[in-house]
Amino acid sequence: MEASALNENSSTGTDHDQDHDLNHGGRDSNPGTVREEGEKEEIRGILLAIASTGNFWHDWDKLKSMLSFQLKLVLSEYPEAKMTIDQQNASLGETYQELVTRLDEELHCFIEGPPFTLQRICEILLAARSIYPNLSKLALALEKNLLVTSTLTVCTKPSPQMMPNPELDKASGEAQPQSNSIQNGVETVAVARDRDEIMTEVEEADIDDMTIDMDAFQDMVGSSEANSAATENS
Questions:
Q1: How far apart are CA 15 and CA 102, in angstroms?
Q2: CA–CA separation, 163 vs 135, rounded Å?
Q3: Can you tell me the distance from the alpha carbon of 49 to that of 116, in angstroms, rounded to the nearest whole number?
Q4: CA distances from 114 to 24, 42, 111, 148, 234 (A)
Q5: Is 116 exposed, middle or buried (0-12, 13-18, 19+ CB in 10 A)?
Q6: Do 48 and 126 contact (CB within 8 A), yes or no?
Q7: Are 76 and 32 within 8 A, CB to CB?
Q8: Roughly how many angstroms between the first and final C-alpha of the chain, as a whole number?
Q9: 121 exposure class (CB count in 10 Å sphere: 0-12, 13-18, 19+)
């Protein structure tokens, strides 16, 4: 009874360890099930920045994990990954799993920093199928770039994601004067409209004043004629 319980506990512990390895991206885990699509795109974006600049900005251990994941993902896309063991040995000179493990271990041999061939490695991992038609040539190219000793140091300049986009700034700068011109145009129309209304009021006021003056003039003429007639009669 006790032996049975011990075996169950041992089995549970083994299962827990396997789950732990999968959840934390263990070296032998399937890269297709470890990360979400969003994480894949994030890794690809980081590798693109390295491939275009030759610099890296992340902690090396974190970046190493990303490279390891991308390496396994790329290798798994080749048809050799789905061959039988005998076919793999005939095509690669070793099994597919042995090839993956060997390349991954060579990557993890870099402790202090990435190899100085990091830029080329990223270029290969981002476009492997278009550059190398079969897995053996890809493995040879990766191994060549991993069998170096010199390393790179982390870049202290702003990463491309942090740098301002001049095109956006230009567009923003062009949009502001246009907005101002629209506002000024509205204000100009409003001012012109106000001016027309004021001039209309002034003209109407002048007409009213002229009407008043004419009435007063006629009253004065009428009064003068009456006085003149009274003088003649007298």
A1: 26
A2: 37
A3: 15
A4: 21, 19, 8, 10, 131
A5: middle
A6: yes
A7: yes
A8: 157
A9: buried
Cα separation, 93 vs 87, in Å, equals: 9
Give yes or no for a contact between 56 and 118, defined as CB atoms under 8 angstroms apart: yes
**Per-residue tens of pLDDT for the chain, all 234 residues:** 545 554 545 444 444 444 444 344 444 445 555 457 788 999 999 999 999 999 999 999 999 999 999 999 999 999 999 999 999 999 999 999 999 999 999 999 999 999 999 999 999 999 999 999 999 999 999 999 999 999 999 998 887 765 554 554 554 455 444 444 444 444 444 444 454 554 555 445 444 444 445 554 455 545 555 555 444 554
Which tokens belong to 36?
Answer: 């979400």
Which runs of E-coded beta strand occur in 50-108?
A: none
